[in-house]
Amino acid sequence: MTKTINAYKLRTNLGEFLNEVYYKGDEIIIERRGKPLVKIVKIKLEEIRMNNNKMIPQKDRLLKLAGALSSKRAEEMERVIYNGRKTSARFLNL
Q1: The pLDDT of residue 20 is above 80
Q2: Could you tell me which of 9, 7, 4 has the C-alpha nearest to residue 26?
Q3: How far apart are CA 30 and CA 19, in angstroms?
Q4: Burial zone of 31 (CB within 10 Å; 0-12 exposed, 13-18 middle, 19+ buried)
């Protein structure tokens, strides 16, 4: 469902609207002076993965500079951390 609200209403009820977007999958269009400015939508897991893949070259360079871990080991650690956060979020009902 798509809702249209004004910026003031968003400011005063931000938590409520974030929950609607996250849990219900609603989309919210924010208006200022009757003109649409932005749309709030739930981010998809594929988009998060795509953004993380763009960061891999930077991560590799940092790892080489630090000399701490191989890329494979760093990716494994990243996956463990991500899965742990995902599990914690489910536990906390986030």
Answers
A1: yes
A2: 4
A3: 16
A4: middle
Contact criterion met (CB below 8 Å) for 37 and 30: yes
Is the model's pLDDT at 12 over the cut of 90?
yes
Q: Which residues pair with 32 in a beta bridge?
A: 35
d(CA 25, CA 18): 10
- Considering the segment(s) 2-40 as one domain, its CATH architecture is 3-Layer(aba) Sandwich (3.40)
Instruction: Kindly report the pTM of this predicted structure.
Output: 0.49
Separation between Cα atoms, residue 65 and residue 33, nearest integer Å = 50
Enumerate the domain spans of the chain.
Answer: 2-40, 45-91
